[in-house]
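Lab notebook: predicted structure, single chain.

Context: the supervisor wants predicted structures on file for every construct in the current expression panel, including those that have not yet been purified. This is the next one on the list. No modifications to the sequence; it matches the entry in the shared construct table.
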Amino acid sequence: MGKNEKLRDFFHLFLALGVFESNHQLQMKSFLLFTLLVCAMVIPGRLWGQALKDTIIMNDGTIISGDLKTLKSGKVEFDIDNIGLVKIKFDRIRMIKGLTHTYRIETSDRKIYYGQIRRSDKPGMIKIDMGDSSAVVPLNHVSFITSLNNNTNRIISGYVSSGFNYARSSNSGRFNFDGMMRFQSRRNTTEVMASMFLSQTDTNWIRDRESLSISSYYVINPWFSIGGNLKYQRNFELGLARRFQEGIGLTAMLLNKNNFQIRTLTGIVVNQEKNTEGFELPTQVEIPMNLYVEFFRFSNPNISVSTNQTAYFSITDPGRVRWDADSRLTWEIISDLSLSLQFYHNFDNRPPSVNSRKWDYGIVTGLKYTF
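Prediction complete. Output recorded below exactly as produced.
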């Protein structure tokens, strides 16, 4: 029997009660009781549907509802009802409630929780409901929030950046591109990164410098992650036609705040190199030492500063030292679009080609779009 048929039967029952006494007032009472019954059946369902919405309360008291996506880089991604996806600066938020997904919450005191986010009775706190237990965490201690849909991978962040410069006096130009996509599940993070520098001459374009890397890491605990990477590199300035690299490593998170992160990595990598003269070099085995630092500033101007420094110490060629580094200053112009200033430098004390330089460096300006 459907819901409408049940309501109709209830209505007939109440009318029948009124017929026995042929009392108009009793019929009215029956009708009112029937109306209250309908409200009792319909309204709670609507209120329950509203309760499943995620909620953000701003510092000025504004309340918005919708779907909480992520917290990263100091910004909350929130899909507002009837408006769309927006990014809200974390320091402008008083309270967060997330009930539509299971969330991975990382805190600055090196803890990781999996559950739903509820409002705490204490101001400035959130309550993480993990089913069989709960935890109360200060809101300003939350570093990352990632929504998880049935533990499947989803793109949670990425960027593309490019720039071009041209000099009429030398009739030459240079185009640069780099980008990143990050996929994250419950305990695994996979990143795909690519960059390319093209130089323009009178007759053609030359691929001066390019790289492509795929890395995947599994979170062991809030301190350590383990994983591996595959990488391709090309650098004509250092006499490198191509380098294929395979490696495994251990990452340690030294600092994890909502506006400041520091992590380091070490492990072992294997290289297959070919120089610009066309000769393939013997397989190289190296130990990498990596340091990554990123800082965000939320108030005007909205800037972020990051640096990625990696030194490689050769095992098969004792005394050979390489250094790859990249630093970037990003200034947000409008939402998701920034002006980017990048400084890169590479060093190899024993480059693949004996006639090549040992240093390569450059400054690149361009526009960066974050998604």
